[in-house]
């Protein structure tokens, strides 16, 4: 079992590979479809067939978009309206949001919310591109789940994206859009009276829940922070290899829970220069990586590798690969 795990880790670091994927939850699914895009066909609870696919967008189209830079530990509120950037290509329809994210500051955790207002909501899909605008990860609309309001939050669709940009990149890109099939769907909310009764332990009233209609416009909030978890989606290529296919994040089945139903280059701020680590620090990380692998703790070794490279170590990856090879 350990040999199989070590082989898997080694293959994730060598060439001729698609971006590495961390299985943060059991419903993450990969696609082996051709470069024409990822196509996953699902049949919703209503019996109507829907298709969730990573769209194929021409490079010329992507280059025309205005990518808004965003910094780590930053929160953006985006109001999508008729005057916002529009994209009507294939299944994509309506206003879109586009972001340029820093790719030289370690792993990123991005929380995207689409707020429900007046029983209307923008149902987001997210396509992530590497620095060369190659599609690397795809989050279909059903990945963003309905969340009930809290003390400091309102009804919303929410999803968390965990990304690790490959070394050598300055930025990666996020395209947020909705589709024609999303616009034919709706989101079932929870009536406030039900939520209150459940919260205080009273009998839940038998009343219908409100429905939020999906629209081409809406309000998004995007919060980004750097984080050291090595189990993220790798964006871009570590080594030279054929153009990768985007990875689809989320279940291959549309959620059938009662809370969601389906009826039918912008300027980038200068990044801090990472200085090479001191010899003693580099030796410490290399020795720690060796011990972790020899003890069978590959996850710890990966985290040490990630931290060492964030500090500027030029030999940590070489050490990791060499020890993994020797263990095979």
Automatic annotation (TrEMBL):
Question: Per UniProt, which keywords does this protein have?
Answer: Signal
Keyword Signal attached = yes
List all membrane-crossing ranges: none
- List the residue ranges of the region (Disordered): 248-270
Signal peptide limits: 1-24
Determine if Hydrolase is one of this entry's keywords: no
Bias (Polar residues): 249-267
Stated name of the protein? Maltose operon protein MalM
Organism field: Xenorhabdus taiwanensis
């Amino acid at each position: 079992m350990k040999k199989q795990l070590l082989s898997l880790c080694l293959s994730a670091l060598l060439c001729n590979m698609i971006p590495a994927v961390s299985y943060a939850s059991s419903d993450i699914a990969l696609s082996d479809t051709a470069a024409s895009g990822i196509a996953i066909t699902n049949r919703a609870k209503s019996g109507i067939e829907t298709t969730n696919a990573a769209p194929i967008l021409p490079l010329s189209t992507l280059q025309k978009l205005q990518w808004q830079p965003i910094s780590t530990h930053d929160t953006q509120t985006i109001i999508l309206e008729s005057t916002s950037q529009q994209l009507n290509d294939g299944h994509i329809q309506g206003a879109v949001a586009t972001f340029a994210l820093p790719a030289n500051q370690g792993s990123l955790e991005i929380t995207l919310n689409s707020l429900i207002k007046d029983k209307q909501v923008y149902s987001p899909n997210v396509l992530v591109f590497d620095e060369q605008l190659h599609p690397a990860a795809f989050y279909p609309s059903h990945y963003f789940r309905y969340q009930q309001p809290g003390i400091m939050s309102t009804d919303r669709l929410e999803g968390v994206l965990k990304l690790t940009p490959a070394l050598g990149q300055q930025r990666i890109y996020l395209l947020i859009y909705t589709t024609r099939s999303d616009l034919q769907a709706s989101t079932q909310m929870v009536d406030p009276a039900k939520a209150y009764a459940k919260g205080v332990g009273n009998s839940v009233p038998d009343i219908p829940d409100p429905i939020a209609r999906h629209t081409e416009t809406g309000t998004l909030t995007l919060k980004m922070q750097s984080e050291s978890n090595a189990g993220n989606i790798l964006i871009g290529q570590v080594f030279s290899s054929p153009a990768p296919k985007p990875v689809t994040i989320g279940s291959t089945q549309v959620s059938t829970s009662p809370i969601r139903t389906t009826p039918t280059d912008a300027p980038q701020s200068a990044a801090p220069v990472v200085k090479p680590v001191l010899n003693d620090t580099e030796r410490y990380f290399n020795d720690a990586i060796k011990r972790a692998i020899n003890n069978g703790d590959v996850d710890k070794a990966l985290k040490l590798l990630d931290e060492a490279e964030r500090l500027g170590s030029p030999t940590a990856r070489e050490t990791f690969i060499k020890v993994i090879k020797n263990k095979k």
